[in-house]
Amino acid sequence: xxxxxxxxxxxxxxxxxxxxxxxxxxxxxxxxxAVFEEVKHIKKSYGAIEALLDAxxxxxxxxxxxxxxxxxxxxxxxxxxxxxxxxxISIIALAxxxxxxxxxxxxxxxxxxxxxxxxxxxxxxxxIKETRKWIAYCSACGRAFGPGAKECALCGNKLKRKYKIx
Length: 166
Ligand SMILES: [Zn+2]
Hints:
This protein has helices spanning 14-18, 21-24, 33-39, 43-54, 65-78, 86-98, 107-115; strands spanning 10-12, 29-31, 58-60, 101-104, 120-122, 132-137, 144-145, 160-165.
């Protein structure tokens, strides 16, 4: 068990990994299993992520149920719940539980975090030049949809989300 303190510099959402933050930013960071599952398919950086774990720079911790509940109900209150994945909710909950600054560029995540008075920094202001945008896509037919879409209009599959570099 990790004690509840702010020994972590940032709680990292998936976008922070896509932006390469854990590799650029000094300090010790934390993320959740759900976020880790989302980003570990990036094969070219998977070895690098493993190395961060080995070096103790990155810690994978799951938030407790109470924090998950608080994050979930805050998201419902702000109206962002539909836009968030379980991974998003989990990283908000972890930042809340560990009193850690949340690093994200997802507007909905930042919005819910602000409602919970979690300090938020934008990963895109950390010297990242590319602009990335969340899109929802169907893994069966490959069609892309707006970030709020949940199901493929064509085949009815649950959509996945990824960053698109614009
Ligand atoms: Zn489809």
